[in-house]
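As described in the Methods, two query proteins were run sequentially through the folding procedure within a single session, without resetting any intermediate state between them. The first query and its resulting structure tokens are shown here.
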Amino acid sequence: RPGMTGAAFYGLLQSPVLGTSFYNVMASERSIRDYARKHLFYDRRRATDRLVANYYATSHKPGAQHAIAAFLSGYLNTDIRSAFARLQQPVTLVWGKQDEANPLDQAAELLSINPRAALEIFDRCRMMPQEEHPERFNALVRDALGLRSVAA
């Protein structure tokens, strides 16, 4: 849960004039493109005009402002360690090696508390391994589910 500052910031983001204005700046095509290039993707070319247009359209659906407000104010910061340690089923963490928002030491900590967990590190990747390396990511999912490739 966020502290008092996060809760106050969340309230500010919900205000009709100031909150809406701030949201419109944060959810502009330029802001989305800049964030994708700096944080989501190792290869900046992945932040295509089409991707930005899709993210923009999604961010302007009714109620979408609540997700950004929750993200920016800290309401999405959940300590999963206790629940992760109790998982009994096999789990594979897929991590971008160059992800600065979620550095590899966080994956190492999760591995240390759950011996059933495995880690797949994708080089030349930040926060979006499923987008930056879709073939490898999909192969991992197929293997985990015991599925054969359509091409096989």
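Immediately afterward, the second query was submitted; its sequence and tokens are:
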Amino acid sequence: MKILIDSSYFLPLIKIAIKSFPENLLITLLSDSQHEYYYSNLSIFELTANGLQV
């Protein structure tokens, strides 16, 4: 299965907590090697913008 990862899953990597997400959720998702994971360049841009605001 192909899965597109939203930028909110990356936020804990830059120390922005999300109340309903466990801190290691992205690692848990990526450890399941039976799926293909993708992300958008726009998600990385959004992540960078959020990181600069902190």
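Strands lie at 2-5, 36-39. We note this only descriptively and draw no conclusion about the first query from it.
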